[in-house]
Batch of 4 targets.
Target 1
Amino acid sequence: MKFSHRIQNMEESPIRKLVPYAQKAKDKGLNVIHLNIGQPDIATPHNFLEAVNEYNVSVLEYAPSQGLQRTLETVQLYLHNYGHDYDLDEIIITNGASEGIVFAILATCDVDDEILTFEPFYPNYLTFAKIGNVRLKAITTRIEEDFKLPDKETLVSYITPKTKAILLSSPGNPTGRVYTKEEIDTLVAVAKDYNLFILADEVYREFNFTDREFISFAAYPEISENVVLIDSISKKYSACGARIGSLTSRNQEFMKHVLKLAQARLSVSTLDQIGAGAMDIVDDEYVYENRRIYKARRNVLQGELAKIPAIDYSMPEGAFYTIIRLPVDDAEKFIIWMIENIQIDGHTVLLTPAESFYTTEGLGKNECRLSYCVKDELLIKAMEILKLALETYPDTLK
């Protein structure tokens, strides 16, 4: 049997591909500390489950392709509370932020068109681009510079007649970078000058640990037709399993085309939308407390990283990820060796190798992403394991 070039050219998820090694460790009776995945461990608001439990119908029907009225209104209110007013027909409920990104790519790009992004990037961006036979062109940002964006001249040098959009997340996955107003202003100017779409992944909007105000691309009326906001309840409400996201734009023609894609996949889960629609009654303190918890965990992690010699790292400003550079040649090989050979008090740890977070040859091979979605004591234990593993990793494997 012959399979498509598209599917053969796709890589396994670097975030999930090493899970079988974790399962083998669990089968041996070890406790695996999962720093490989951004799965919040904080309880989902009870409002979500209560709304689902109280949904009393005899037939579980399709939801409208655009989304249930209550769920759309909840997204509308959420954005209004941030100072961004959208009409309901400028919002579509999606199967997580992932489907929103796929829809945005398919609606803005033809085969072999280009989308600019910044490496290291969330690796599914590349997968989503490959689904549409679109080229993801990555501009390198560096750990030594805290993953700062390049200047306008550098950005413009990457633009070709094939360039259709800029795709990025802020706060950033995997870097934790929260872009400054100056950086956002530069991107806005480039998008305006070259008539590019900005596909703004703002899933981690709530997790900004800086003293700076979070700047959304929705705050720039001069490019309102260019901006596509992509969001999700997964992280802010600890509801990854609900798969409820949203895609928002003031570009009516764009939304008309995206609705065709939404109709083709019929609808998003009715039950999950019922739960998501109740998020408008969640106390704001829930989100504020989550931010405090993750910021405190960030600080614990930074303190533990400082105890490990010969690694490079930066200070993540938001989300709940960070990239570190290890004194090894191959981070994936090291991570597998560590989970198979190193344990402390019955614990081992799983990290995510970062090579697939880059498209530039050779970059990221000795880096990994850490997610700090676990309690302080597990973060400390995980870093003890990492330190011991680096101290005992055989020179023959380095």
Target 2
Amino acid sequence: MTDPSDTVDAADVGALDDKARAILRQNDQGDYTVPTKGLYPFQWNWDSALVALGFATFDMDRALREIETLLAAQWADGMVPHIVFWQDDTGYFPGHGEWGTAVSPPTSGITQPPVAASVLIRLHQMGGEVERVRRLLVKLDRWHRWFAEARDPDGRGLVAIIHPWESGRDNLPDWDRPLSYVDTSKVGTYQRRDTQHVDAAQRPLKAEYDKYMALVQFGRDHGWNAEAIASGNPFWVADVGMNAILLRAERDLATLATALGEAVIADAATERAERLAAGLETLWHDELGGYVSLDLRHGDKADTLSAGTFLPLYGGGIAPGRAAALVATLRDWRDKVAYLVPSYDPNVERFDPVRYWRGPVWAIVNFMVARGLADAGYGELAEDVRADTARLIAQSGFAEYFSATTGELCGGKDFSWTAAMWLAFASPSASAE
């Protein structure tokens, strides 16, 4: 077993703790936190939820307010958008004008992985004010019901994503084939802003961005109508990561609702979780020995593994034999890279150690994979993942993500969710859960 305290000098731990808190404060806009200044100037959905875990280590009121602000932008149908444009900033593309959602506050038209319920139960366990938690619980139940209704209209137990951005893993190679069906002939010209802040070698390619914009335009042209999107959006994919995270969120929502005496919510969440658990098992790929995503439009499963392959461990309830197979794969990957967990299989030619979700290590994914490993009884490997996260941050700072082979800083600097993961997970001073 590797202890993070063995890989981070004890004298540096306090300084890193202080730096992480300082990053959260400098990115704090009062009621919400930007991921990092310049590159991402608004409130992002799963960023905010995970950032709340960091705030909770030193300011519970601020942690709850982060999630309250996010859910204040919930749509009437229950959807919680992936970006909330609380102020104007012409330096970001695509801004709210490109989304055309006609809601107040202005938001994007898509969602992101629903980690908020799993964060909220932790805040409750840490002493978060009960009535504030209860109000958030009700809103999260609405969001989870929306997933079941809008993104699994056939009741098969798999929710669909309608855009790679919804997965949170934008340019994952899993999306290459489903995106090949997206028509970009009407996209037109546009000016990206991300590559003005970050090395283009670490960002999605223009050809991929054209596909992203075509999907934004499809949603906008159809008024973000859930039924029209379900029937006609060219990208309709069961992302293994989204489904595993939602499964964990439903289970956590049910546990939290039971603790608060909200039996109706608990029963509904439990029923949804059971359906998701059954659906998730259909994503198992016998030849690859892991869980993969499924293109629901064309019936094609992804033909390679990614970090998302391990997230069903986080979702919970995986059969011991399948858990053992996942662990064997992760140990194989550990021999191929310097740091766990690469976002894509390092044995595959398309692996790129620095290009966004095609290979780099992300602290937030490490947090979830480590939790899943520990829950499944693989505590030693979970500690290895935690230790690697600590080493990366100690070596390269609070980067958006890190090279899996060299550990170098990639993407944005002084990143909020990386700071939060240090405080809540990777730091040797983090409280044991």
Target 3
Amino acid sequence: MDRKILDKIKKCLRLAQSSNAHEAAAAMRQAQKLMQLHGVSTDDVVISEVESFTVKSGAGQIPPAHLCMLANMVDKAFGAESVYSCGRHASRWVGRFEFFGANGTAEVAGYAYEVLARQLTRDRNAYLETLNKRIKRSTKVRRGDLYAQGWVNAVAKHVVPHQRTEAEERSIELYKAKRWPTPLEERQGRDNTKGIRSHDYDALHQGRQDGQRVNFHQGVGGSRQAAIGEVSS
């Protein structure tokens, strides 16, 4: 769909809201003429309000649960939604989170996820360095992921859910219906924390403590800088 044509149609539709009856009528006729000429439906115009932003992830075919938790938290904070997909690159699987939303929320959400994911990875790695070098790899992975889940849960407590408008809800629902005719399945992620033992709870506790020191600002105005004011621990 030609973006320039869509922009012209949307401009006409905005002018059609004018308090000047003659101007509003003329703008609506022009919008309808353009839509008919280029085969653009009202739903197409609504869907065009939704944009997407893709963030690479090193998680492979199935992301660990804590990264899904992080993406879900960011979705909630900015009123966006996200999907995870992966593809083969050379000899390995490369995954990505794609955020989508109306009014610029996709890029802001994607940027927030990138920043927080980097911080989480650094903190998780730093925690793993404190563990006994002789513990089994499965134990190390389990504790690392428990730490990460505690970290995300602590940061999530600062989130105030974004309430989408009716117009945003409609545009996102139409976008999903057109792009994914089959409803998306709920994203769970790979749970590496099964078989948790009493000694593992220290990892969860430490993750929560470190996560409490992360300053997550949702911001206003849809700018990257507003989305993340400071992320430090």
Target 4
Amino acid sequence: MTNFKKFLLVILVGAAALIAEFGLGQPTVAFWLIVIVGGLTTISMFIGMIETLRSGKYGVDILAITAIIATLAVGEYWASLMVLVMLTGGDSLEDYAGKQAGRELSALLDNSPQIAHVLEGETIQDLPVDDVAVGALILVKPGEVVPVDGRVSAGTSFVDEASLTGESKPVDKQVGDELMSGSVNGDAPLRFTVTKKAADSQYQTLVKLVKESQTKPARFVRLADRYAVPFTAIAYLIGGVAWFISKDPVRFAEVLVVASPCPLILAAPIALVAGMSRSSRNGIVVKTGTTIEKLADAKSIAFDKTGTITAGSLSVNEVYSLTTHFSEEQLLQLSASAEQESNHILARSLTNEAKRRAIALLPVTGLEEITGQGITATVANHQLKIGKAAFAGCSESHQKDQTAVYIAVDGVASGRITFDDVLRPEAPATVDTLRQAGVQHIRMLTGDHRSIAEEIAQKVGITEVHAECLPADKIRIVQETPPDQRPLIMVGDGVNDAPALAVADVGIAMGAHGSTAASESADAVILKDDLSRVAAAVTVAQDTMKIARQSVLIGIFICVLLMLIAATGVIPALLGAALQEVVDTVSILSALRAKNDRAGTEKFLA
């Protein structure tokens, strides 16, 4: 039975008991109704407490169980009912605050390739990927996802592997090159020979990594549990002394009623729910209350590069003219005009740069795409060739790991245009804010080349860089983080980040344009395309936990004061249970402060 159903059962039984005693004059029936529901709840809590103790943790259940048993034993069954209402209500609220999303793998599985175009001679047969044998010849059409791992046997094309490796630029695939399942083919068909069965291919490896990661959750002590042991010890000590001095067991029950751990059960979950609501209102979806606690205590953070620290799309870095006949602006105008009707993977970057510079695009005629090479077109009576260096008759002079296109005008090598992944403008400030918030260990994990990764890291102030990482490498690095650097946050956006997001103490997905699989595997999702929300999430979590601790300690202080008064015998058990409502109200009102944006954090949440 769920905690919410237990809460409804207690409410219904309580109503029936009220009717039985005060409506029908049957106090015995009311007593046994409360004894039955109290007994069932106590047994359920006892079983849960044993499981908690076996896991190496200690919760507040033992004090609540003792309070219920003690009040029933001395005949204070109405006090017992009030404790039951508060207890089951608090557990229901805690479930709401800490409910895990149950679909972590659904998007990853749904998006995995299902069909492969198998070539038998010149006949194409569509088969489920699981039925494709090693050695089969596969056709992957433009824009399709590569279904299984293989090696190119015919054709050339650019392939987008960003979601798997994190490398932002498209990869030129030719005969003999390897293809990974889950990568996206570009603008030309490819034929390839299968080298691995679907179950062993790259995409399914990601699925298995996520599954394995989620079966090994990190151990974490919740806020309420940290105060449970001293609070329980104080309650038993005061109650035991009161019983010993008075020789009256009722005195012990009276002390335990006001010692009922409702501030621990209610204050922290309500503050967490309020903090989650505040985060959600500002574009940060936090899936569990435990995530808030871990974010607040985070000591380390690891960022993916492409789509996280950078925007994940290529932009023009440099336009370089090789001739005096055309300026850089004229070369960009000609190139962007030629590409405006092209489906080449870099065409959008060129046209966007022309628009940014307010350069008018000219009419294009005779556009022809040469597979794996580039395009030819006529613009302003000039014959253009745009593409690879050899295709345009140019010599390669840019960095090997940098994307570039070359331009020939009227048969003369005339220039080149290079492209870079765009750094998010808010990235340096985000890293700085995280350090100020106490997150001292900041690293970058990326599948991109080391030179590019280190250049980006230097710009944002990250000193620890792990480049050319596959998903398994990211998981290994996250898992090898020493205990004194935990909790660790992992921030990413691609399918290749999903396993690392799942295995990190807190996984944060950039969900505005990122992979659904990454969002489903993460503990928190940034809905706005703004990296500064990561810093805001940490700041809000720290503020929330500060308020939660204040609320818990306020409740504990009042409870201890009431216990000392109850030890004298001046507070009957029923009145003590009623006073608990006052304690709960104070704790709840204090905890609800966590829903309000506060000074020092609203600058991130504009």
